[in-house]
Write a structure and sequence with these properties.
There is one protein chain. The protein is α/β, with parallel strands linked by helices. Helices cover about 45% and strands about 15% of the residues. The protein is elongated and about 75 Å long.
C-alpha cells in the first residue's frame, strides 16, 4: 500500500522538542510527496476526529519553538480495562478496543500514524499494532528520560539545564540567608532529571526514587555534619517521586504515614499523582520538627531555616536547547522514514550518537538509574567529601 497521508499526534506531558519532531516529520513527508495531518490533543483527538492540516509552508523553523503545535492530553483509551477482573478479560477487552481504534484510520483519512509520547502514549500505540496490525510508528518523548529503548529523549537536556540554572540561582539566596533549600524536581519513577541537574549545580543532597532514603542518615545527619564542618547554607535536590524507605517512614516521620502515600489520587493510566504528595514540603515540615538539628545549627552560628521550591511545570517550559532541537529533528526524520519503508510497530531510538529503532513493545519499558551507575558514585562522593574535607 502506498502511503499518501500520515497522521501525527503528541500525547502526555509537553516538553521542549516536540515541535522539532513535527518539523522533522514534515520535512521528509513533503520531500516524499506525503500529506501530513495533525491530530489534536493526543489520543483524545484521535478518538474524536480532531484534526488540522499540516502545511510545512505555514511553519517555517517550527523546530525552534517550545511546546507542541498539536496540543496534548493524558487520555487513556484503555482506561476501562482497569475494571477487568481477570487477565483473560483484560486481553479480550484490549483487543476489542484496539480494533475499534484501528477503524478510526478510515474516519481520519490516514494511511499511517506517528505517535509521539512516553510509555503511556506509546503503550497505546503498541497495542494498536499488536492487536489490530495498525500501521503505527512511535517516537519516544519524556523529559524524565525513563524509556528503555533510547539513551536520551528530546527535552531531557533542556529540562536538566533549566533545573540546574534554577538551583544555581537559588544558591545565592540560600547563601545570603543561610538557609536550607529543598528543590523538588520532576521524576515520578526515575531520578535522571534530579541526578543530572543536582550534580551539575552542586546540590549537597540528592534524593531520587531509585534509592529510597533514610531520613535520619541521608538528610538529618548530613545536614548536621555539614553545619559542624562550617557550611552555612545547603541545597537539596529532590525528585517528586523520592520517598523514604519503610523503616525510616515508620521511625522518623511525624507528618505522613504509609496510608498517606497509599491514598494518593491516580491519573488516567493508574499512576499515583506524586506531585500531590509534595515531598519537598513534607521534608521541610519534618526538618522543622527536629530540635536536635536546630541545636547543631545554633552551635555553629546559624539559625535553622528551611524552604521548599517546586519547579514543577516550569521544567517543561520554553524553547528547546540546541541538542534537543537537533535530536527532535532527527527523530522526526527517522520516524517518517520508517513509515515510508513500511517498518511499523517500531519506535525510533538514540543509541550513542546513532539513530536506530526498537520494537515498540520493548522500547516503551521503563528505564531507571542502575545501582552500578557512576552518577550514583559521584552523588555519594560529593555529599561525603564536602564535609569530610573540612574536618579538623
Amino acid at each position: 500500500m502506498t502511503i499518501k497521508k500520515v497522521g501525527i499526534l503528541t500525547g502526555g506531558g509537553d516538553c521542549p522538542g516536540l515541535n522539532s519532531v513535527l518539523y522533522g516529520i514534515m520535512l521528509k513527508a513533503f520531500d516524499a510527496g506525503v500529506e501530513c495531518v495533525g491530530i489534536l490533543q493526543g489520543w483524545k483527538g484521535f478518538l474524536e476526529n480532531l484534526t488540522i492540516p499540516l502545511n510545512i509552508a505555514d511553519h517555517d523553523d517550527l523546530h525552534i519553538i517550545g511546546g507542541t503545535l498539536l496540543y496534548t492530553s493524558r487520555t487513556n483509551p484503555f482506561k476501562s480495562i482497569q475494571k477487568a477482573k481477570t487477565k483473560e478479560e483484560k486481553e479480550a477487552l484490549k483487543q476489542k478496543i484496539s480494533k475499534e481504534m484501528a477503524s478510526k484510520f478510515n474516519e481520519l483519512g490516514i494511511d499511517a500514524l506517528i505517535a509521539i509520547g512516553g510509555d503511556d502514549t506509546l503503550g497505546v500505540a503498541d497495542a494498536l499494532y499488536k492487536y489490530a496490525n495498525a500501521k503505527v510508528v512511535g517516537c519516544p518523548k519524556t523529559i524524565d528520560n525513563d524509556l528503555a529503548g533510547t539513551h536520551y529523549t528530546f527535552g531531557f537536556w533542556s529540562a536538566v539545564q533549566l533545573a540546574s540554572n534554577a538551583m544555581d540561582n537559588l544558591t545565592t539566596t540560600a547563601r545570603s540567608h543561610q538557609r536550607v533549600f529543598i528543590v523538588e524536581i520532576m521524576g515520578r519513577d526515575a531520578g535522571f532529571l534530579t541526578m543530572y541537574s543536582g550534580i551539575s549545580s552542586g546540590a549537597d543532597i540528592i534524593l531520587i526514587p531509585e534509592t529510597p532514603f533514610d531520613f535520619e542518615k541521608d538528610v538529618v545527619d548530613v545536614l548536621k555534619k555539614r553545619a559542624e564542618a562550617g557550611h552555612k547554607y545547603h541545597m537539596i535536590a529532590c525528585s517528586e517521586g523520592a520517598y523514604p524507605d519503610s523503616k525510616s517512614l515508620r521511625r522518623d516521620f511525624k507528618t505522613i504515614s504509609q496510608e498517606t502515600i497509599d491514598k494518593l489520587p491516580k491519573d488516567s493510566f493508574g499512576n499515583p499523582v506524586l506531585p500531590a504528595l509534595n515531598i519537598s514540603n513534607i521534608l521541610v515540615k519534618e526538618l522543622d520538627l527536629r530540635d536536635d538539628l536546630k541545636e547543631v545549627f545554633k552551635k555553629n552560628g546559624v539559625d535553622f531555616e528551611c524552604r521548599s521550591v517546586v519547579l514543577g511545570h516550569t521544567m517543561r517550559a520554553g524553547a528547546p536547547n540546541s541538542f534537543d532541537r537537533i535530536l527532535g529533528l532527527r527523530f522526526g526524520l527517522a520516524a517518517m522514514k520508517l513509515v515510508l519503508d513500511g517498518e511499523f510497530g517500531k519506535m525510533v531510538s538514540l543509541q550513542g550518537t546513532d539513530i536506530t529503532t526498537f520494537p515498540l513493545e520493548e522500547g516503551v519499558k521503563k528505564k531507571y538509574i542502575k545501582p552500578s551507575s557512576d552518577k550514583l558514585e559521584l552523588r555519594d562522593l560529593m555529599v561525603k567529601i564536602r564535609y569530610k574535607s573540612r574536618e579538623n
